[in-house]
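#onboarding

Welcome to the new folks! Below is a worked example of what a typical request in this channel looks like: someone posts a single protein sequence, and someone else replies with the predicted structure as tokens. Don't worry about understanding the tokens yet, we'll cover that in week two.

Example request:
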Amino acid sequence: MEPDDPKAYSPEAYDGPGVDRGMLILQGLRGAAAWSWRFLLVAGALFAIFYLIGKVWVGVLPLLLALLVSTVLWPIVRWLKAHRVPSALAAGLVLLFSVLGLLGILAAIAPTVVDQGELIVHQAADGLQLLTDRLAGPPFNVQNDQVTAYVDKATAWLQEQATRIAAGVLTGVSTVGSILVTFALTVVLTFFFLKDGERFSPWMRRFVGPTAGMHLTEASARVWRTLGGFIKAQALVSLVDAFFIGLGLWWLNIPMAFVLALITFIAGFIPIVGAVTAGSLAILVALVSLGWNTALWVLVLVLVVQQLEGNVLSPAIQGRTMELHPAIVILVVVAGGARWGIVGAFLAVPMAAAVVTVIRYGSEHLDLRTGRVRATDLSQRTPEGRAAAELAEQIAPVFQLRAKQAFEQAEGERGEARQVVTSDSRSERTGAFRDRFLTPLLRRGEGRDVPVANEDARAADLAEVDLTAEPDGHPPGTLPPRA
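Example response:
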């Protein structure tokens, strides 16, 4: 019906069994509103959580660092406990030797890093300027003021970092508190995690109840495994990257190859972004020191090592420990670095991996409740996790029954709707036949008065007749004789 048709605005157009478009639009808006307020509620809760974390970051940072360190040292402590070493003594010995080893390494490399760190930063700034000048000349002829402004900002930032390094100022001290206090809190928390970590799960089950305790125990065990696997895998991958890149820089006679290899190892704990940053720094130093040809060889070296790492080494070492898409890794690293600096960029990926681990655990239980998988098909880390999976499998028929009832109800409603549509269509055919054939014939009759009820009954009977056939010798469109 055209919009300009007067019948479109008549009262009859708004009456009848048809579906009103406005009702469908309203139903869609209700669904969108339901999803919207839930999304806003979740977003508000996340904002509040991150806001509170930012306010107490001085205390949250040692806690997160202690968790990561504990996941690395726990296998040694567990081995000592299995050989009847007391928990406190085992945790204390492992932590003591770890701290002494870390301090020894820092004492050995600190003089070299301090002496060459400022020079590396200055050379990186000079390399950026050379790269900009090369792009401005033929054959590139890039004359972009915005690119130049970005390069100037990057150069100013690098020079600022060099000044801070020379002055002995550590970036981020004002944000995370004193480095010594953070280090001390991390050591203390790590000791208690190693000593009393096994008591946490039983206490949690007593506090939240048996059902929720089973899920929390299994989820926490998986998160613990994910964090430990991330640290150990990234350490090994970073060590391999640093070794081969450092060896290549030494073979190419790049100055400060050891410090650049050390930067590569440390930056490797920030996946993707750290490797790109360290490789770019090595290329800029090579460009300033030995020219374009050597810088291109360093670029080839960095690309080859990173391709081997990304396609061979990381999948073999990490396996399913992380399994995060590179786009997610880049986003969380950028977000963590923008909010909490280098420390935030370092912690962003393991925290995101922990969250994804919990989501996967919930997805497994959804599959158990839908009947798509069985408890024996899943691998659990704890006996509580196996019990929770078996319980989910036992109650799966309840959810399947509810789904069947909902399906049958929907099918019944569709059947009723089809009957209504069929009845309406039959009434329309009856009325059309009466108006087109029966009424004119009766009006041309021999003056007999036919009651309206008989007329409607006659029309209903005749509506069922196939008008294209010729029953009893009567041509199409003619009436059979009334009995």
